From TrEMBL:
<dbReference type="GO" id="GO:0004803">
    <property type="term" value="F:transposase activity"/>
</dbReference>
<dbReference type="GO" id="GO:0003677">
    <property type="term" value="F:DNA binding"/>
</dbReference>
<dbReference type="GO" id="GO:0006313">
    <property type="term" value="P:DNA transposition"/>
</dbReference>
<dbReference type="Pfam" id="PF01527">
    <property type="entry name" value="HTH_Tnp_1"/>
</dbReference>
<dbReference type="InterPro" id="IPR009057">
    <property type="entry name" value="Homeodomain-like_sf"/>
</dbReference>
<protein>
    <submittedName>
        <fullName>Transposase</fullName>
    </submittedName>
</protein>
<dbReference type="InterPro" id="IPR002514">
    <property type="entry name" value="Transposase_8"/>
</dbReference>
Length: 88
Protein backbone atom coordinates (compact mmCIF):
# COMPACT_ATOMS: atom_id res chain seq x y z
CA UNK A 1 0.00 0.00 0.00
CA UNK A 2 1.29 3.47 -0.89
CA UNK A 3 2.20 6.29 1.42
CA UNK A 4 -0.74 8.53 2.38
CA UNK A 5 -0.04 12.12 1.31
CA UNK A 6 -1.50 15.14 3.11
CA UNK A 7 -4.03 17.39 1.41
CA UNK A 8 -1.47 20.20 1.58
CA UNK A 9 1.10 18.05 -0.27
CA UNK A 10 -1.46 17.16 -2.93
CA UNK A 11 -2.55 20.79 -3.41
CA UNK A 12 1.06 21.96 -3.63
CA UNK A 13 1.80 19.27 -6.21
CA UNK A 14 -1.16 20.37 -8.34
CA UNK A 15 -0.22 24.05 -8.01
CA UNK A 16 3.37 23.34 -9.04
CA UNK A 17 2.26 21.16 -11.95
CA UNK A 18 0.00 23.91 -13.28
CA UNK A 19 2.32 26.87 -12.78
CA UNK A 20 6.00 25.95 -12.86
CA UNK A 21 6.52 24.78 -16.42
CA UNK A 22 8.02 21.44 -15.39
CA UNK A 23 7.05 18.30 -17.21
CA UNK A 24 4.67 16.13 -15.25
CA UNK A 25 7.08 13.22 -15.54
CA UNK A 26 9.88 15.29 -13.98
CA UNK A 27 7.63 16.65 -11.24
CA UNK A 28 6.28 13.20 -10.37
CA UNK A 29 9.83 11.91 -10.11
CA UNK A 30 10.89 14.88 -7.95
CA UNK A 31 7.91 14.34 -5.64
CA UNK A 32 8.41 10.59 -5.46
CA UNK A 33 5.01 9.68 -6.88
CA UNK A 34 3.91 7.82 -9.98
CA UNK A 35 3.08 9.88 -13.05
CA UNK A 36 -0.41 8.36 -13.14
CA UNK A 37 -0.97 9.44 -9.52
CA UNK A 38 0.08 13.03 -10.26
CA UNK A 39 -2.20 13.09 -13.32
CA UNK A 40 -5.13 11.88 -11.20
CA UNK A 41 -4.50 14.60 -8.62
CA UNK A 42 -4.36 17.27 -11.33
CA UNK A 43 -7.56 16.03 -12.97
CA UNK A 44 -9.39 15.86 -9.64
CA UNK A 45 -8.20 19.21 -8.27
CA UNK A 46 -7.64 21.38 -11.34
CA UNK A 47 -10.86 23.35 -10.85
CA UNK A 48 -10.50 23.81 -7.10
CA UNK A 49 -8.92 27.09 -6.03
CA UNK A 50 -5.48 25.51 -5.69
CA UNK A 51 -4.11 28.01 -8.18
CA UNK A 52 -5.26 31.60 -8.35
CA UNK A 53 -6.39 32.91 -11.74
CA UNK A 54 -3.46 35.34 -11.67
CA UNK A 55 -0.95 32.53 -11.11
CA UNK A 56 -2.53 30.45 -13.85
CA UNK A 57 -2.43 33.40 -16.25
CA UNK A 58 1.23 34.00 -15.41
CA UNK A 59 2.04 30.33 -15.96
CA UNK A 60 0.32 30.39 -19.36
CA UNK A 61 2.20 33.55 -20.32
CA UNK A 62 5.49 32.00 -19.20
CA UNK A 63 4.84 28.93 -21.34
CA UNK A 64 3.97 31.12 -24.32
CA UNK A 65 7.21 33.06 -23.85
CA UNK A 66 9.27 29.86 -23.49
CA UNK A 67 7.83 28.65 -26.78
CA UNK A 68 8.62 31.97 -28.43
CA UNK A 69 12.21 31.85 -27.14
CA UNK A 70 12.67 28.33 -28.57
CA UNK A 71 11.43 29.53 -31.96
CA UNK A 72 13.63 32.63 -31.92
CA UNK A 73 16.71 30.62 -30.94
CA UNK A 74 16.03 28.24 -33.80
CA UNK A 75 15.66 31.13 -36.23
CA UNK A 76 18.86 32.72 -34.92
CA UNK A 77 20.76 29.47 -35.40
CA UNK A 78 19.49 29.22 -38.98
CA UNK A 79 20.58 32.78 -39.71
CA UNK A 80 24.03 32.12 -38.26
CA UNK A 81 24.53 29.41 -40.83
CA UNK A 82 26.68 26.33 -40.45
CA UNK A 83 29.61 26.49 -38.03
CA UNK A 84 32.73 27.66 -39.76
CA UNK A 85 35.95 25.75 -39.41
CA UNK A 86 38.85 28.04 -38.78
CA UNK A 87 42.08 27.30 -40.55
CA UNK A 88 45.18 28.52 -38.84
Amino acid sequence: MGLKRTDEFLQDAVRIALTRGLTRKRLASDLGVELSTLNKWITAHRDIDVVSKEDLNLAQENERLRCEVRILKGERDILKGPPSSSQA
